[in-house]
Amino acid sequence: MSPHVLILGGTTEARELAATLTARTGTRVTTSLAGRVSRPGAVAGDVRIGGFGGAEGLAAWLRAHDVSAVVDATHPFAEAITANAVRAAARCGVPAVVLRRPGWRPGPGDDWHPVASPAAAAAVLPRLGRRVFLTTGRLGLAAFAGLTGQHFVVRSVEPPAPPMPADVELLLARGPFTVAGELALLREHRIDVVVTKDSGGAATAAKLTAARELGVPVVVVSRPPLPPGAAAVPDVPGALAWLGAG
Ligand code: NAP
Q1: 107: in domain
Q2: Residue 117 falls within a domain, yes or no?
Q3: pLDDT band at residue 246, thresholds of 50, 70 and 90?
Q4: Residues near 116 by Cβ (< 8 Å), separated by ≥ 6?
Q5: 134: domain range?
Q6: Which residue of 112, 196, 197, 234 shows the fewest CB atoms closer than 10 Å?
Q7: 92-98-100 Cα angle (round to 5)
Q8: pTM of this prediction exceeds 0.90
Q9: 75 and 137 fall within a common domain
Q10: Whose CA is nearest to atom 10 of ligand 1?
Q11: Which of 30, 75, 117, 134 to mutate to test the pocket of ligand 1 (most atoms within 8 A of CB)?
């Protein structure tokens, strides 16, 4: 039987890995999506959608589907599924690796304010600005719900649900974004502070360049750590090499 790779997806890298693996080798590939986005893009190979039911449920799925390797290519802030993947794979004796893209690094001219959590971002905001471009995702709005002195321009893929701040202007959009587009957005909305997670990657990095050019401070929420002992690679070639398919 051909090897069966489970990719935990929801990122550009997961899609690229699925496309490369299915094109290059005889490997069977299944990508798992959480089901948060109503219209996910096309994915090569098999796709399954929805939670597994914790690490136990994922372990049962790995056994039932004869999975030979797991690549957790979920978003760097998708902490629960990464922990479950590492635990479930260890329990089943299935090799697993986390594909974790590098975080962003500030350069000359950047005015970054690293914080440990969305709550910490909300705590520093009042002294940094009043017109906020908030890109922490629709589930990250609750931490800012108590702020009343700021106008929030919120960009997310899907409409957010309460709790959220009182003064919110919503922009529904999906990356990749360009520097020209982000400059126009920051200017049009007279943004004086940006809040982002340290997602890393090129698709959503243009806002950082635009903020630097306009001298706008950026509050950057740091990533959660990888589970202890987890094997990790930084990109798709690294994952292919780890799979022996590079
Ligand atoms: P999370 O907090 O780590 O996961 C919560 C639960 O959702 C997991 O316990 C699992 O449910 C289910 N789940 C998450 N990812 C899954 C997947 N790929 N396949 C099947 N079930 C999954 O995750 P999250 O932060 O809500 O992110 C959800 C998805 O959106 C991920 O696939 C991630 O790659 C993508 N995404 C997240 C962000 C972000 O900022 N967090 C940004 C862009 C994309 P069970 O315990 O029932 O298995």
Answers
A1: no
A2: yes
A3: low
A4: 221, 222
A5: 112-221
A6: 234
A7: 170
A8: yes
A9: no
A10: 51
A11: 75
